[in-house]
Amino acid sequence: MFIALRDLRFARGRFALMGAVVALVALLMVLLTGLATGLADDNVSAIADLPATHLAFSAESGVKFNQSTVTADQWQALRSVPGVADAAPVGNSLFNGHVYADHAQADKARTEVLANGKATSADTAGAPAVDLALFGVEPGSFVAPVQTAGERLAAGSDGVVVSDDLARKKGVKVGDVLVLDRVGLELPVVGITRKANFGHVPVVFAPLQVWQKATFGSTRAVATFVAVRADDAFVPATADQAQRLTTVTRTAAFDGSPGYKEETGTLVMIEGFLYVIAGMLVAAFFTVWTIQRTAEIGLLKALGARTGYVVRDAIGQAAIVLVGATALGLGLGLGLGAAMPGNAPFALKPVPVLGAGALLVVMGLLGSAVSIRRIAKIDPLIALTGGNAGAR
Amino acid sequence: MSLISLAGVGRSFDTVAGRVVALAGVDLEVDAGDLAVLLGPSGSGKTTLLNLIGALDQPTEGRIEVGGRDLTTASRRELFAYRRETVSFVFQTFNLFPGLTALENVRFGADVAGRPDAAEEAHAMLERVGLADRASHFPAQLSGGEQQRVAIARALATGNRVVLADEPTGELDYRTGIGILELLAEQSADGRRAVLIVTHNREIARMADRVVELQGGRVVRDGAPDGGAVPVASLRW
Ligand SMILES: Nc1ncnc2c1ncn2[C@@H]1O[C@H](COP(=O)(O)OP(=O)(O)O)[C@@H](O)[C@H]1O
Ligand SMILES: [Mg+2]
Question: Is B212 part of a structural domain of the chain?
Fold first, then answer.
């Protein structure tokens, strides 16, 4: 890369300009990836973090969380399907509520709700309103949350374990009381678990029976879906047929969360466009650059440099600019990401960020590869017949 | 056997306006140690002939052998190797790499020819053309004469045995041109190299013992100039 490196030095202004554009694309890529990861976390982190391999929904639900109801017969039957290590019911519904530090105030608000359908603003004064996803799980089952503070869920108790998000953003602590709006259930907060979100709201874990009471007004032996822990021997189709279920992998179930598909689809489309734009941009740059270098390339060939040498030189040059610019862009993006406000749906994880960087470099290299044919076609004769490598 | 040997070489071009015969029936033998001038008016086929010897172009008739290699039957790969290892060009418009310093330009010549001692050779050749103190200058920072010296150093650093110079003084003033021609003339003196200089200037042709004169694509004369060769320094044009 004798020539390539020195051309970078010589035409640094031009390469800096292209590098800056690539760096900006990389920066944008980091922000988009962060947004995509953040939104996905916000929407389905509670599902993503379930220690389950598969989720079984009722057959007629279309694999939608808000359409599915499974029965005790179904989850019990699943436990004896070959390949299944364990199966546990999970109930899932969205609620609103208020969190009270003062138990007397909570009792009063609850009475109001039961009598009039809602609490007065005087009753809820000072109690933060929360949107939440209530997850009903059997205490002690493999899907029960691991508490980071306080206590775990207990059978026969109304105690709930809340996402760390509620603790951090709403100041909820162990000992507070959550009163569900409209339903009027009073749920003491007994523990905090790590951040878990569903449908862009924090998750509150409750014993399955409490969830049933909150959702149906009475304890009915149903849940929303069955979390399944299985190995390769598990054939979902067989179980589905027998039990009228639709079983999908945990990650496939994300699509069943309201809005998840639409959000990720839009972002993936924007990212796709960006990659294509980046590739075309680099292609355009290297096409013009190659045309400018025509005389020089002819001269190289006249001096006996083979096309392969010239192409390696050109691609190597592109790789240096792309890797440098992408690294710079990623660095800036990570810096900017770190400065993001904490409540924005934004999360940077190494795999998507590095993946985006690598893909950007690959697209750029593909773009630069369009100049290969042009390089190959240049005739060394032009070096003699009026070519002047100095004319750039 | 001569270093360069052409037998019945012809080159014609098919253009929309019809067939143009640039060269016809050229026989030529050049030995190592020869300094030869190719003389002829514009359009007489000088550049075409140089391109053929440099393997930048292929004849439509006849045979060309250089250093025992038959250029008319060689593969593409062999021709690239030939250009790296046997032949060096000096161009009218210098054709240095603008992004490389004087030293790097010379170094590139030695590198591409596969010389393991490229770095030292580049220094030595730049010194030989009197530009050791301009080693880190870029072509744009050098005068035309200095650029042409760098180009000659690049050709010499390859160690290749055939040096082809097409109107090397065409862009230079008289004084500078004399210096360049002297430098080129010296290069055949060790008996290893053949140096071919193309010019349309009859006065310049007097510098060599051997003048090959072209007219309309044919060799019309091949021998010593009228009145014999004279030292470069005494040329006037
Ligand atoms: N690629 C080409 N196509 C058509 N005609 C050409 C081509 N190259 C050279 N010629 C013709 O061949 C003749 C010799 O050209 P050239 O070798 O360049 O002459 P010189 O270098 O002596 O001035 C001219 O008539 C020129 O027009
Ligand atoms: Mg010419």
Answer: yes
Q: Which residues of A touch B91 (CB under 8 A)?
A: 383-384
* pLDDT tens digits, one per residue of A263-292: 999 988 998 998 899 889 889 988 998 998
As a whole-number percent, the residues of chain A with pLDDT over 90 amount to 76
ipTM above 0.85, yes or no: yes
Specify if B25 maps to a domain: no
Domain ranges for chain A, please list them: 2-43+261-383, 51-249
Ligand having the closest approach to the CA of B16: 1
pTM: 0.79
Residue B142 covered by a domain? yes
Q: Which of B:107-146 have CB within 8 Å of A?
A: 107-109, 111-113, 138-140
A–B interface: beta-carbon pairs under 8 A: 85
Q: What percent of chain A has pLDDT over 70?
A: 97
Contacts of B138 in chain A (CB under 8 A): 10
* Per-residue confidence (pLDDT) for residue A73, from 0 to 100: 95
Total domain count, chain B: 1
Measured CA to CA, the distance from residue B100 to residue B79 in angstroms comes to 26
Q: Output the DSSP codes for B195-231.
A: EEEEES-HHHHTTSSEEEEEETTEEEEEEPPTT----
A156 at interface of B, judged by CB pairs closer than 8 A: no
Selected for mutation to probe chain A from B52, B56, B92, B154 (highest A CB count within 10 Å) is B56
Alpha helices per DSSP H over chain A: 2-10, 12-48, 72-79, 103-116, 121-124, 164-170, 208-216, 236-243, 260-292, 294-302, 307-338, 350-369, 371-377
Q: Which residue range is the domain that position B144 belongs to?
A: 33-58+76-234
Q: How confident is the model at residue A341 (pLDDT cuts 50, 70, 90)?
A: confident
Instruction: Say if residue B37's pLDDT is above 90.
Output: yes
For residues B47 and B206, the answer to whether their CB atoms sit within 8 Å is no
- Among the partner-chain residues B77, B111, B113, the one whose CB lies closest to the CB of A2 is B111
Any idea what DSSP says for residue A148? E
B140 contact residues in A (CB cutoff 8 A): 390
Backbone angles phi, psi at A313, to 5 degrees: -60, -50
Is pLDDT of A80 > 70?
yes
